[in-house]
Structures are given as structure tokens and as C-alpha cells.
Amino acid sequence: MQIEENISLKSFNTFGIDAKARRYASFSSREELEQMISAGKRSPLLILGGGSNILLTRDFEGLVAKNEVKGITELHEDEEHVYVRAGAGENWHQFVQYCLKRDWAGIENLSLIPGNVGASPMQNIGAYGVELAEVFWSLEAFHLKEMKTVTFTLSDCAFGYRESVFKNKYKDQFAVLTVTFRLRKKPIFHTSYGALQEELEKMGVKELTIQAISQAVINIRTSKLPDPKQIGNAGSFFKNPEVTKSKYESLNEKFPAIVGYSLVNGNYKLAAGWMIEQCGWKGFREGDAGVHPKQALVLVNYGHTTGKQIYDLSEKIAQSVYGKFGVQLEREVNVV
Ligand code: FAD
Ligand code: EPU
To answer: Which of 84, 174, 207, 320 is most exposed, with minimal Cβ within 10 Å?
Structure first.
């Protein structure tokens, strides 16, 4: 284990924010993490994956510990499912590709989401009609204060839309070490998301496969979302807000073009990107902080902005959306 001091985190976060870590090290096993914690007692700790869902607003006066726990293991199978365990430090999309190669179905709609396996349960990653919760079986996490490993099952995680216990009740308390997935041997295709259907048609897909769905998702994502290698960003900056039916109806009367859809609980989910665009922010730029010209839900770093500038911009956006629509936006990105 090698601990570096005062290093720049610019290449460790997809926003490309040049904040510093007082100390930085990576760990590839529970034992290494334990040693690291023991060596730096009482120091604040930030567990880092691919850095694709964080906004660094300041230097981190503690230890940044990058999770590099690797390995993919097929645990067992039954008639319908295969149970696969992956190390938290495995790259998410490479794990998706590993499963596609073996015809293990369930995560094809989640292709090309940046980041690592270990962060996937943090916000119950989701895209194109599928959420992690649908394939999640269990995870092993290390309690950073009590120094013990705990197993979490599906119900323990209390997954919701971009939510889990790890973002709430247990925030900053655990390091996820491994995640076990229950994947299907025979696929159930999820193609109801409008853009996905259109793309599959455009591709001329005759016989649906999980590989075709993955390719369609990749095509949509590369055409819609900015590549962090080109422009710093962390995907959707805000969540899509949920409002009551009566709130939705009154908004719909005033703004007939509003984008929203009903949920099983009777509430409505609104497209935050549409509301932000209506407030005139799409393509906005102030210094190097901006709102992507093609996707208003994505805030971007054009080069040398600070996390504080991005945060301040997000504050102004949320205020103007509240002013126009009376809807409070909540950040999806983890602010550090
Ligand atoms: P990080 O950014 O490193 O960490 C995120 C949070 O989890 C931090 O609070 C960190 O402390 C904590 N954390 C990370 N790893 C661990 C661990 N092993 N144990 C404990 N805590 C940990 N998300 C979606 O849900 N759907 C999308 O479609 C989507 N599209 C995106 C597109 C782009 C272009 C980008 C840049 C991001 C997108 N995201 C999306 C957000 C992001 O990719 C996911 O949230 C991803 O799971 C984050 O993984 P990460 O390893 O980069 O996490
Ligand atoms: N829209 C606009 N203007 C914009 C952006 C979007 O009007 O500038 C409208 C679109 O026209 C569309 C609707 O908003 O009618 C939804 O847009 P899109 O399909 O692009 O999805 P999104 O709501 O912006 C969500 C997730 C993404 C996920 C996609 C696909 C959230 C916060 N974001 O984006 O996840 O990939 O759906 O499922 O739920 C992420 O979490 O980081 C992320 C990228």
C-alpha cells in the first residue's frame, strides 16, 4: 500500500475538477483497506470508484481511497438464473460486456454507464427502463468504523429511484467490496423506452437479442450524452422530480408541453431537462462552467472551472426552476 500526499484528483473525477487530496491511496482487498484505515485513524475518508458521480467543491483534507477490488466469479446457477459476483473495482461497462459474451441477461440496458461496479448500488443506477435493483442479489460491504464486513440483501438496500441506504442512513459508513448479481439465462427484453424502440427500428433489428439492445443503448448514449473525455461532466446533475397528480395537472394546464409520465403510486415523474431548458439554461456558459447545449440536465466543465462554480450554477438553475414551476430539484451528483 502506497499513500501519496497532496495529489491532484483531476484525473480521478469525470468532471475534471482540479481539487487536491491531502492523502491518496488505492486498495485491492479488504485487508489493504483495513491497514489504510488503521494507519490514518480519525482522518476523513472518501471511498472513490470511477469518479463519475461526484462534484469536488473543495480540497479533501483526509484520505481518498480508490477501490480497486477486482475479480468476477460465477457462484452458482439454477434453472433460470446465474449468480455472479464482481469486485467493486471492476469497470461497470466491462462487466456488462463480460455478461453479454456469456449470454447472461439483465444489465444490457445499463450498457455504457460510466464508473465501477461498487458504486452501482449507491444510487441504484438506472437507464432505458431498467434499474440495478432488478438484477441485484446481495453485496458485501466493510463498515469503516466498526471494521467488519456486512452482507446486504435486496431488502436491506432500500433501493429507490437513484436512492439506497448508502446515500441516506449509511452515508459514508461503508465501502462496498463486492456485488452479486442474479442474471437470467433466458432474457426478458425491456424495450418500452421510446428512444430505445426507435433506435432498434433504425438499426433494422429483426431478431431481438441482449447484444442488439446493448448496441442500441450505446448508440443512443453516444449521440445524446457528452463524453467526459471530451467535456467534463457527471451525467444528469439533478434527479427527475416526482410530483403529485394534482401538481402535475395544474402544471400541465399552464405548460401543455410539459414532459412527464405517471408512476405506479399515482404520482408523476417530470423531465428536469425539459424544465431547465424552458428556463433558458440550455447551452448557458459562464467562464468554464456550463449547461450542455444538447442535454440541459448535464452540467459541464469546459476546462478549468471549479467545483464551487458548478455548484453555484446548479443553485441558480434550481432556483429558477422553482420560480417558474414551483418544483424543487434535487441533486443526483454527490457533492464533496
Ligand atoms: P464515484 O463517482 O466514484 O462515486 C459515487 C459515490 O459513491 C461517491 O459518494 C463515492 O464515495 C461512493 N462510492 C463509490 N464507490 C464506492 C464503494 N465501492 N463503496 C462505497 N462507496 C462508494 N448514472 C445512472 O444511474 N444512469 C445513467 O444513465 C448514467 N449516465 C451517466 C452518463 C455519464 C456521461 C456520466 C459521466 C455519468 C452517468 N451516470 C449515470 C452517473 C454515474 O456513472 C453512476 O452513478 C456510477 O454508478 C458512478 O460510479 P463511480 O464508480 O464513478 O462512482
Ligand atoms: N429533455 C428536454 N430538454 C433537454 C433534455 C431533455 O426537453 O435539454 C426532454 C427530452 O426531450 C425527453 C425527456 O426530457 O422528452 C427525457 O430526456 P432523456 O430521455 O434524455 O432522459 P433524462 O430524463 O434526461 C434520464 C436519466 C439518465 C438516463 C436516461 C435514460 C435521470 C436523472 N437521468 O435522463 O441517467 O441515462 O434517462 O434512461 O434520471 C444519470 O443518472 O446520470 C443519467 C444520465
So the answer is: 207
